[in-house]
Design goal:
YmcC-like fold; two-stranded antiparallel sheet; 257 residues; 15 strands; mainly beta
C-alpha cells in the first residue's frame, strides 16, 4: 500500500512541477435535518456483522465483524477502538480502526506516520495530510455536504489537492434488512462518499464513489461501492490498489448497547 501511495505522490509532484497549481474550495448547503448522532451508536460493546461481496478481477464472498472495544490515545486525542475481522475466501484478517464521536460528527484517525517516513524530506515538506477523516457531519441536513479528507500539495507557493474525499446526503430509502434473526424494515439515510484523484492540477482527475446507508439507533446497515473508500472506514486502511474493486456489505446481525 505504501509503495503504491508513494508512487502516486511522486507522479503528482512531477505533474505539478510542469504546470500551475490551483487552489480548491468547498461549500456546504443545509436544509431540514434528516439524521443526527442517534444514527451512529458508539457505546462500548456495540457489534455488527455483515455479509461481504467483493468484485475485482474475480468475485469473492465472506463476512466482516466489527466490535467497539475500549479506547486509546493518538496524538493526545482519545479514540474508541473499532476491531474489524474480515474473512474472504476463507482467509481472515483483523485490523483496528480508531474513531471518536462528538456533537458535530464522527472522526476516524488516519495514521500517516508510515507513509511520511517513507517520503524524502525534500518532498515531505510540500505535503500536508489531514490526520482525521470526518466520515459524518452531524446533524446531516437535506442537501448537506462536507469534506472528509484532503491531501494538500504545495509547490512553489501554490496549493493543490491531488487526493480528496467528500461526502453528501443523497436521499432517504426504506430497506429490508435480511438479518439472521429475521427481516427488519428500516428507514435509512443514504450518504455518498467521493474519492477524487488528480495527478496534475490541469487534469480533470478520476472520481470513485461509495455509498453508506444509516438507520436510526442501529448505525451503518449497508456499504456499497469503491473498495478504497470502504476499506478506509472498515479497518482496512487506505489502499489505492482497491480503486478498481467494488465492495458490498450488508448487515446481518447487530447488538447495540
Amino acid at each position: 500500500m505504501k509503495t503504491k501511495f508513494i508512487a502516486l505522490i511522486l507522479l503528482i509532484i512531477a505533474g505539478c512541477m510542469f504546470s500551475s497549481c490551483d487552489s480548491d474550495s468547498s461549500t456546504q448547503s443545509s436544509g431540514d435535518v434528516v439524521a443526527d448522532g442517534t444514527y451512529f451508536p458508539a457505546e462500548d460493546g456495540t457489534s455488527y456483522k455483515y455479509n461481504v461481496d467483493k468484485v475485482n478481477d474475480t468475485q469473492t464472498s465472506g463476512s466482516r465483524s466489527s466490535l467497539y472495544s475500549g479506547t486509546t490515545v493518538h496524538e493526545g486525542v482519545i479514540y474508541q477502538i473499532q476491531i474489524d475481522s474480515l474473512t474472504l475466501s476463507g482467509l481472515t484478517t483483523v485490523n483496528n480502526a480508531f474513531f471518536r464521536k462528538t456533537d458535530t460528527g464522527i472522526f476516524f484517525f488516519l495514521d500517516t506516520t508510515g507513509i511520511s517516513a517513507s517520503i524524502p524530506d525534500s518532498l515531505l515538506s510540500s505535503l500536508i495530510f489531514d490526520t482525521e477523516m470526518r466520515i459524518f457531519l452531524f446533524p446531516i441536513n437535506e442537501g448537506g455536504n462536507w469534506p472528509v479528507f484532503k491531501m494538500t500539495l504545495n509547490i512553489q507557493g501554490f496549493p493543490f489537492s491531488p487526493v480528496e474525499v467528500s461526502a453528501n446526503y443523497v436521499a432517504k430509502e426504506n430497506l429490508t434488512l435480511d438479518l439472521i434473526r429475521g427481516n427488519e424494515n428500516v428507514e435509512t439515510v443514504k450518504i455518498r462518499f467521493r474519492l477524487s484523484i488528480r495527478t496534475s492540477p490541469l487534469s480533470a482527475g478520476v472520481n470513485y464513489d461509495a455509498f453508506a446507508w444509516l438507520a436510526k439507533n442501529i448505525g451503518i446497515v449497508k456499504w456499497q461501492g469503491n473498495g478504497t473508500i470502504i476499506n478506509a472506514f472498515t479497518g482496512g486502511g487506505i489502499v489505492f490498489a482497491d480503486t478498481s474493486s467494488t465492495v458490498t456489505q450488508n448487515l446481518v446481525e447487530y447488538d447495540v448497547n
